[in-house]
Design brief:
single chain; 57% helix
Length: 187
């Protein structure tokens, strides 16, 4: 009864449940004519792989003349670049961004080179620095793979695995075919 009086006066009353249910009871539309109203939720958009790579590149070559390197500065930069504001925990949750941030902070502003006056030279210098950093990371990765290979060789020797056994062809993949014609059996 009370709900009917409120509907007659054109007011929506919140009874039990969500606001949307109360509006539906009164026959009121939700949102606009174009569709339901959507709220922008901060921090819910996932970072894409290319966005992470771009942020890592930028953090590695951070220019301390522009601003000191802080998480707030990185968050502001990412927001300006992608139009979305992530939280520190989101950015720090990606190991590559966190490593780049920590490495650049350890280097400090002393390593930052003065930006050339020419914009093209500045761009080339930034690209060269990024390539040097990528080269350093790839060398570290290669060294880790070499250590892993050496460990495998020692383990294979200790277990008595011969070089011929290591070079043997792989077994064909069993795809679970039940039909003998498809399985390569009886034709």
């Amino acid at each position: 009864m009370l709900l009917a009086r409120a509907a007659a006066k054109g007011r929506a009353m919140r009874v039990a449940g969500s606001q949307d249910r109360s509006r539906r009871r009164l026959g009121m539309a939700r949102g606009t004519a174009a569709g339901p109203a959507r709220k922008r939720v901060v921090g819910r958009r996932r970072l894409k792989a290319e966005e992470i790579a771009e942020l890592v590149r930028e953090v590695r070559t951070w220019d301390y003349v522009r601003a000191p390197l802080t998480w707030e500065a990185v968050i502001d930069f990412a927001e300006g670049l992608y139009g979305h504001r992530w939280k520190r925990q989101t950015l720090e949750g990606h190991a590559t961004i966190k490593k780049a941030f920590q490495a650049r902070q350890e280097e400090g502003p002393g390593k930052a080179r003065r930006a050339p006056r020419d914009a093209a030279l500045s761009l080339y210098a930034k690209q060269a620095e990024a390539l040097r950093e990528e080269n350093r990371l790839l060398k570290e990765k290669l060294a880790a793979y070499e250590q892993r290979f050496a460990r495998w060789v020692v383990n294979a020797f200790l277990k008595g695995v011969t070089e011929g056994e290591l070079d043997a062809k792989l077994l064909p993949t069993d795809r679970g075919q039940t039909d003998p014609k498809l399985r390569g059996g009886v034709k």
